[in-house]
Amino acid sequence: GTAFVVQWDQVYLQGKEDLGSFTFQAALHSSGRIVFGYKEIPVPVLQISASQHPVKAGLSDAFMVLNPSPDVPESRRRTIYEYHRVELDPGSISSLAAVEFTPLPTCLQHQSCDSCVSSELPFNCSWCHVLQRY
């Protein structure tokens, strides 16, 4: 009840199956922490070709739009629009490594105007939870 974990077991790079398989996890904790655990990384991420698909490591906010394909009317083309990203250094990803993202404090953690305004947040907070306005 405190975390949701997804694991990818024995994932192979298409056309590069001889390099070995990847096994890794993403754990989303109820506290807001996100942990990536890398069990088996058979080849350095920096050596993975981006010719077929971009190679990214980290977190990103994005949304997807399905558009009709001009070539095949009954099919749809997926377009992903990324608008914010926190990147990991691909060189830090190796077998038996873990990376943790910890959320920064926000105004939403406070239940009253006074506690929000008087808090020691690293930014100027003026949101009032009670009144639901700034």
From TrEMBL:
Membrane topology: Single-pass type I membrane protein
The keyword Transmembrane helix belongs to this UniProt entry's keyword annotation: yes
Major localization listed first in the record, in broad terms: membrane
Cell location: Membrane
GO cellular component terms given for this protein: membrane
Pfam families attached to this UniProt entry: PSI (PF01437)
UniProtKB keywords: Glycoprotein, Membrane, Signal, Transmembrane, Transmembrane helix
Origin: domain of life: Eukaryota
Database matches in InterPro entries: Plexin_repeat, PLXDC
Family of the protein in this entry: Belongs to the plexin family.
PANTHER family for the chain: PLEXIN DOMAIN-CONTAINING PROTEIN 1, TUMOR ENDOTHELIAL MARKER 7 RELATED
Protein known as: PLDX1 protein
